[in-house]
Write a structure and sequence with these properties.
2 strands, mainly alpha, globular, binds fe (ii) ion, two-stranded antiparallel sheet, Hypothetical protein af1432, single chain
């Protein structure tokens, strides 16, 4: 059992507030991609899905006269830094293991190059998973941030992802031959 579930994170008012800016539907899609990519890259499904769910909670609203101003956003955005910090605070507050909170937070910090100077980053497999999962849901002109989902469906999807993560984690604790029987 995990100390903190995706549902705990998703339902928290902090997450609800900031996901309204960056898009609940986008966060859920990225979490779903991260779940599948975690197997391919052999990284923790628990950490990958949590980082994916929270990866965009650092967004500020770059509105000018009622419209999102991409020029202003490109110049001034630091959403990955803000998101990493917000996610860390939230995870610790909810009782996440501090080492997990750090790993998730750093994966959020490095999920995009958009705010970074021109340097090559050698990302860990977990950090790659979160970046790739985000890119898999990206649409032109930031349209992925505007996709809609109703509240009931969103919560159901998150709860389903929690079940998948729990099922996978409990399977991992079984002896190898029992694991195969469950596949
Ligand atoms: Fe994103």
């Amino acid at each position: 059992m995990r100390n903190v579930t995706l549902t705990d994170l998703f339902q928290h008012p902090i997450t609800q507030k900031y996901l309204q800016r960056s898009g609940v539907a986008h966060a859920i899609e990225v979490t779903n991609h991260a779940f599948h990519l975690a197997f391919k890259y052999n990284v923790s499904v628990d950490l990958a899905t949590k980082a994916a769910l929270l990866h965009d909670i650092g967004h500020y609203e770059w509105y000018r006269q009622g419209k999102w101003d991409y020029e202003l956003y490109r110049k001034n955005d630091i959403h990955a830094i803000k998101g990493a910090e917000r996610a860390h605070k939230l995870l610790i507050r909810l009782g996440e293991n501090p080492q997990n909170a750090k790993v998730i937070s750093v994966a959020i910090l490095l999920h995009t190059d958009s705010y970074l100077p021109e340097i090559d980053i050698n990302r860990s497999p977990l950090q790659k998973v979160v970046k790739l999962a985000d890119e898999m849901d990206e649409e032109q002109a930031g349209k992925h941030h505007y996709k809609q989902i109703d509240k009931v469906t969103a919560l159901e999807k998150i709860q389903h992802l929690d079940e998948l993560v729990e099922r996978y984690l409990s399977k991992q604790q079984l002896p190898l031959d029992n694991q195969e029987k469950l596949m």
